[in-house]
Amino acid sequence: MTLQDRVVLITGPKRIGGVLAREVAARGAHVALTYNRSKRETDEAIAAVVGLGRHGVAVQADLSDPTACTRAVEQAADALGGLDVLVNMASVYRATPLGALSGGDWDAALAVDLKAAFLCAQAAAPHMRRAGAGRIINISDWLPASGRPRYKAFVPYYTAKGGVVALTEALALELASDQILVNAIAPGPILAPPDTSAQEYAAVEKATPLGRWGGEQEIVKAALFLIDTDFVTGEVIRVDGGRHLN
After folding, report:
1. Residues with active-site annotation
2. 91-118 pLDDT tens trace
3. Which alpha helices (DSSP H) does the chain contain, by range?
């Protein structure tokens, strides 16, 4: 699928989402971004999209609310005249020891990381079906994509991202006859969290066979490949510098 005059919806503007928005706009796409509280980052990304001569729209949505998922997709499609590509990037990433976890913590993680991805995909599918084809890209994580956890205190996150792998495969089968390709990206050490110490940063580099952090462009490259391909569906691509090999 070429991106010229296609409509791309990205959930989550922070960091990688904003970079991806700029890249697909540079290739001719019109872009919608959903955000919950990150209005400044969203406005900056949309301004960059418009600066490239494409249409851009920001949609405020708390994707932990199921009705907001459907509403966000419909608002984006109405504003931009359809929907061709959905990238589910919104995520809750929070370390909480098992003994301190509440049912609310569990629900919050699965609502955004897994349920919202399903609901947005479900709402997007009819628009893509009418267009004759589509692409759905989910974001998992290199750990569940590799089949085992390695870090404590991330039970809801790991479970949700494991569910994203299963969701991707199930949706790929359901939507294949409509030429809607569904794949996932499983990032590894791409961007360090803001509170990462120099020692922690170096430890990750040492544990990664390629010896470095990847940077957001590596996720963008993978997303562009999954948009471009016409014959890959149901796949989970690890973008982790070989981290899963150790």
Report:
1. 157
2. 988 889 999 999 999 999 999 999 999 9
3. 16-26, 39-51, 66-80, 103-110, 116-131, 142-145, 155-175, 198-207, 216-228
